Amino acid sequence: MGLKEQLNRRDFRRLMVGQTVSSLGDWMGTLALMYFVLELSGSTTAVGGVLVLRLLPSALGAPVAARIVTRWRRRSVMMNSDLVRIGMALALPVLPWLWWVYFWAFAIEVVGLVFLPARDAAIPYLIDDRDESRRKDGEEHDTGTLEVANGITMATSYGMIPVGAGLFGLLLWLSNNAGWEGHWRYVVVFWLNALTYLVSYFVIRSIPDLGPASGERRTEQQEAKQGRFIDALRLPVVRGVLPGVAVVALGLGALFSLGVVFVRNVLDASAVGFGGLVALFGIGAIMGLVIVRRGTWNLMTQIRTATALQGAVIATMGLLASTTWSFLGAVLFGGAATAALVGAITYLQESLDGYRRNLALTAFHAVLRFGLALAALLSGAAADLLGHWDPTPLGVAPARLVLAFSGLIVIAGTLLIRRSGAGSGREPEPA
After folding, report:
1. Distance from C-alpha of 279 to C-alpha of 302, rounded to nearest angstrom
2. pLDDT tens-digit profile of 346-384?
3. Which of 18, 144, 347, 416 has a CA between 20 and 30 Å from the CA of residue 186?
4. According to the per-residue pLDDT averaged within each range, which of 263-267, 322-326, 334-338, 426-430 is highest?
């Protein structure tokens, strides 16, 4: 089933519209946070701290999220998450204090970690032909069909990167021309982000049901024994895929943490250049979705190949420090990261059913965000420390050296990705 057929499904289409709008606000907010914090602190470590405090909740909030997404209906989880994030996004830019910004960035991501697994677990439910009773017990979704749906979902996020970057730059330019100074230049961006959460809320409210289906409900015995985050990490399918998610997150975190400094100090480009780099990443992500939507690759091969390509691109960007290659590399990087993540999330959805799928997707987002946070913190701190120790260690700028090593680590990490013993079939229900 192709792109057009998926979007013809009314409820799936509505969810994707809401997620597109919400993602647009998120990317504007992420870029605004990076520049806001850099303006307040002047430190690359602090910029990395933005990602840490937006993503670290995966380590702290994952156990709570696992409980919530396996007990409450997905529609309620998603609607309540959006309502809470509206208030948080409104509060974030009110005071120009670093600790205040960090606190609300942290809080928004805690709620986001609850929202995303519920959304991803609803995707197979929305694309299932329930009215035709096509799917019987034990029958799987067609992998290509589910991967197309996951690709569309991923496109609602990555496809908004160039749009979000462009709108952020436009809003910043308009505020500067209007004479706004200090943190007030960023208030409008965050409040627009709050408005996008409101749009998402009303869209989800218009969808009658997001599951779980009756076959996904757990028994009382399972309710008592399962639903913990640690249960997700015990699933062989999850253990086989998560190393790939972790190293993809490493590459993403390093590039986004060092991107502002790399563009400004190494490539001698302006904030517009950084916006262009981010926009090209989004274009590459869309191209990656076009390639993988055919569903012809073995998923594990797709994950390994795309992850290795991502690492090679990052390492080469750091070693060459060429403006031309950096912008070309951003396209390749976006495509590779998207192919790896779409493959991983599809593999989890295909291999698991019911509440175990919810748990696995919670683990997916937790590891992705924790990896991004850790990579952002370590790469930013490493660049700062190298700069204080030697302005040009090994004859290159610190940001270049850290990027190069990050890429090599990503390549090495592909050796940890493996197919679980469950193969491509569903894992058996735990006792």
Report:
1. 24
2. 888 788 776 777 778 778 877 887 787 778 778 877 877
3. 18
4. 334-338
The pLDDT-based confidence of 116 (bands split at 50, 70, 90) is confident
User: Structure tokens of 256?
Assistant: 């986004």
Q: What is the pLDDT of residues 242-255, one digit of tens each?
A: 888 888 888 888 87
What pTM was computed for the model?
0.69
Beta-carbon contacts of 395 under 8 Å, excluding residues fewer than 6 positions away, are: none
Q: Left, alpha or beta for 268 (phi > 0: left; psi -120 to 50: alpha)? A: left
pLDDT at 222: 47
Peptide bond into 212 cis (omega under 30): yes
Beta carbons within 10 angstroms of residue 403's beta carbon: 30
Measured CA to CA, the distance from residue 340 to residue 241 in angstroms comes to 10
> Rounded to an integer, what is the distance from CA 129 to the centroid of its chain?
28
User: Token match 């197979």: residue?
Assistant: 124
How far, in Å, CA of 289 to CA of 335, rounded? 7
What is the CB neighbour count within 10 angstroms for residue 350?
21
Q: Exposed, middle or buried, 144 (CB in 10 Å: 0-12/13-18/19+)?
A: middle
- Identify the weakest region by mean pLDDT among 105-109, 269-273, 343-347: 269-273
302, 292 Cβ separation under 8 angstroms: yes
Q: Measured on CA atoms in the order 174, 177, 179, 182, is the torsion positive or negative?
A: positive
The pair of three-digit structure tokens given for residue 365, joined into one six-digit string: 């987002």
**Contact partners, residue 34, CB within 8 Å, separation at least 6:** 47, 50, 256, 260
pLDDT of residue 47: 65
Residue 422 near residue 236, CB atoms below 8 Å:
yes
Q: Which residue has the tokens 């799917």?
A: 135
C-alpha–C-alpha distance, residues 226 and 204, integer Å: 28
Which CA distances in Å does 141 have to 353, 354, 412? 11, 13, 33
Distance CA(189)–CA(167), nearest Å, equals 9
